[in-house]
């Protein structure tokens, strides 16, 4: 999948002598991106995941020196991991942050390239932020922006170039295209975003009481640690705690000694706290029955409350893993009984997934699932509010577009004629422009980028007109910044110089 951050990682593999730390919210594609760029680079990859391989945490412990660390690392590397040809990838680095303290030595020693990845929930802890700046490049990844989302949904480079030009000239686009992209944008609003939304939402509702439900004990611990670090009054609840600690944490929450409860679905039965203002599901629950019960903890005093569900496809895989574990469990139940239970669990999961992704009224969906009369629109859930907002915006924007088009028609026509006269290309210039297009196509294909990410059409046209012969002249062309000039400038200048000198 196309990510702009791939350019940064690919450039690091090719040219940097530093180590690289890729951090960000979970499920933003850090691990996938690193693996993909290493594979494309031709380097051999040696990967350690400190969650999947917890024994490696003690094996590469904090007490040993950097020299000992490197010796032990080489001992577990396969024979194909050759010096100067291998990228060592430490994933889930927050579980073994001691590695970062040794990065200066590892970089200076120079046998391998080192890339690390970890969640925002833990990667800034335990001294990572104090790692030597001169030896470590930090890339913070975020969920896909809308441009990346469009590329992932097969929006053509022609359309993206057109949108960029329309934005620069403040010109309206065709209504059909506008509606298509608007519909895609509302899908993006539902699918995009992701975990840091929890922290943001809590900050916006400071002082309010709420519950954050997580799918696993591990996530409860990570979210609790992160919120505590950020200064929130928070406690936790899951089956891995002792009875006394669970009781104490529950009482702290009920009697307002803690503002936020972070918990698995083990928390909630028999809890009737009236002033819960929000419930956040950090992961999709296993079924609608659980979601309905847990969301129902909010607003029991009759005052407005809010329930937020964060969904990821990874949640589906995690729940299926739990279902499979139940099937494998030696609990004395006959195989056919366990198979029927698994089938029903899968069926409930299907409906939960549909709820998490439906564009329908969410209240109506829930009521229908439980066999109650359901309205077409409740005018209160996020789907209804987004649809109403979209309709208003469409009408408002259409009216504004008509006004702008009518008021500026004469000006635009005049400007177009003026630009046509000013930007008219000679036959020789057209040949130069064709050569620049060909070079852009080669560079984009080599880097697996949309062509416009190299230079857009209007920038290439200005190059053909003004024919810059130095980097300084190239920087005066609209659309050429210092980064692009450094990366691509010399190749484009060479084409221009060759074409000009041959005339």
CATH class of the largest domain: Alpha Beta
> How many distinct domains?
4
Main sheet summary: 5 strands, parallel
Shape: globular
CATH architecture of the largest domain: 3-Layer(aba) Sandwich
Beta fraction of the residues? 5-15%
Number of strands: 10
What's the CATH topology name of the largest domain? Answer: Rossmann fold
Question: Number of helical runs?
Answer: 21
Mean of residue pLDDT?
Answer: 83
Spans of 5+ residues with little confidence (pLDDT < 50)? 121-130, 193-198
**Residue share in helices?**
40-55%
CATH superfamily of the largest domain: P-loop containing nucleotide triphosphate hydrolases
Q: How many whole angstroms does the radius of gyration measure?
A: 28 Å
Task: Give the helix/strand layout.
Elements: H1 5-15, E1 19-24, H2 30-41, E2 44-49, H3 55-59, H4 66-75, E3 86-91, H5 98-101, H6 103-109, E4 113-119, E5 136-141, H7 146-152, H8 157-169, H9 175-191, H10 196-204, E6 209-213, H11 217-229, E7 234-237, H12 243-254, E8 260-263, E9 276-281, H13 288-295, E10 306-309, H14 313-328, H15 335-357, H16 362-369, H17 382-422, H18 427-447, H19 457-466, H20 471-474, H21 482-501
Parallel strand pairs: 1-4, 1-5, 2-3, 3-4, 6-8, 6-9, 7-8, 9-10
